[in-house]
Design brief:
The structure is a homodimer.
Chain A (H helix, E strand, L loop, with lengths): L2 H8 L6 H9 L2 E5 L4 E3 L7 E7 L1 E7 L5 E8 L3 E2 L2 H6 L6 E4 L3 E7 H10 L1 H27 L2 H11 L1 H6 L2 H8 L3 H6 L4
Antiparallel strand pairs in A: 1-8, 2-7, 3-6, 3-8, 4-5, 4-7
Helix pairs in contact in A: 4-5
The first copy, chain A, binds a DNA duplex (30 and 30 nucleotides) through α9.
Chain lengths: ~190, ~190
DNA sequence: CGCGCGATTGAGTAATTTCAAATCTAGTGG
DNA sequence: CCACTAGATTTGAAATTACTCAATCGCGCG
């Protein structure tokens, strides 16, 4: 099965062949094309997703119909509505495909099962969450005090590849600025 | 030992008496007075902290000497510089006491030990991190698109008690607005 | 009573948004 | 291969919002 997934997990914790086979067996696959929804607001959320290939956005639409992007996900990233997934509530965010996508699907039940049975996997997700938490803190710091140019530069530093694959409109929404303002920045 | 800590953990996962005693034995205690530092920027970070009593702030100071508050922590909250703690790097944020504080201290080693030995504790921290991640996502959504009044109202809804214990200057910094702007909002 | 600190108020300024229009680009069909 | 269209991006100008700086207020405490 997916070598990439194994490498991804083993960046954090080693797995025996048997363990990995067991883990991999818990996943199913899913393919979506550009513009298709992975999760829609107000729907139930049953799965966590790992991106094999493609690019997605997770976003909330506010009362005025404005979209605010919470996260992008490309190869090797996890994505879901974790609030809904953890608490078994309805989705408050939507996720759709910016490009054609290939995903590995891990249901809540299988995730919990894996975490109960395999120490290493429990630790994997624990460390992933903690790293995600830290990453969001960094993003908050930039939203709190940095101007649009600084925010853009940071994202450019963090993942230049992502920027090239994104329409500017979406990037603006992620950075919390209007697309006109983004357009007036200097783009390295 | 701390009944409160046991209740805190058992909100997520049950523990036997023996397990809890073992867990509790991994913590030490620490008392600090108002204005004292728990963590200073550029220092090493060895511990995670759980607040028994008191109120602290975690913040970053930018190049212009402006403080940006990442997190407050009061009773029942965990706090540390997780970036530094996880990666064994130097602190990029400072944490100090807004009120006199009483803390339970869990070293990185003991935390990892507990997570390796006790399934339930590994799951506890995993779920805590995930919940923390979701909470930060919500905060990001408000920073992305809401005006100061909405941000204030949200925090008022989330924890009105916190607001009463905080100097407005700190609140402004947390919300990402100037104290003058905060002062001009309607305070319910 | 007066000092000191935090909070408030006022006025001017800077930055970003908004609205509108023009330009560019990629994909489509002739 | 070219013209055409829809969508995305850029540009311009006005309006809005929040910031900054400065002054004042209010309260607790010595």
């Amino acid at each position: 099965m997916s070598i990439a997934l194994r490498q991804h997990i083993e960046k954090i914790t080693p797995l025996t062949n048997a363990e990995f086979d067991y883990v991999a067996g818990m996943f199913t696959t899913k393919k979506l094309t550009k513009h298709q929804f992975l999760i829609q607001e107000d729907h139930e959320v049953f799965n966590d997703y790992w991106v094999v290939k493609g690019l997605l956005k997770a976003y909330h639409t506010d009362g005025d119909g404005r979209m605010h992007i919470l996260q992008f996900a490309m190869e090797d990233w996890w994505i879901s509505d974790y609030q809904a997934l953890n608490n078994q509530t309805r989705a408050t965010i939507a996720i759709d495909c910016i490009e054609d996508c290939e995903l590995l699907v891990l249901s809540r039940e299988n995730k919990e099962k894996l975490c109960d049975e395999l120490h290493s996997i429990a630790n994997f997700f624990r460390k992933k969450s903690s790293a995600g938490y830290v990453a969001l803190q960094q993003r908050i710091l930039f939203l709190l005090n940095k101007n649009p140019q600084d925010r853009y530069n940071r994202l450019y530093q963090l993942s230049p590849k992502l920027l090239q694959r994104l329409p500017k409109t979406l990037l603006a929404s992620y950075l919390g600025v209007s697309r006109e303002t983004l357009s007036r920045l200097s783009h390295p």
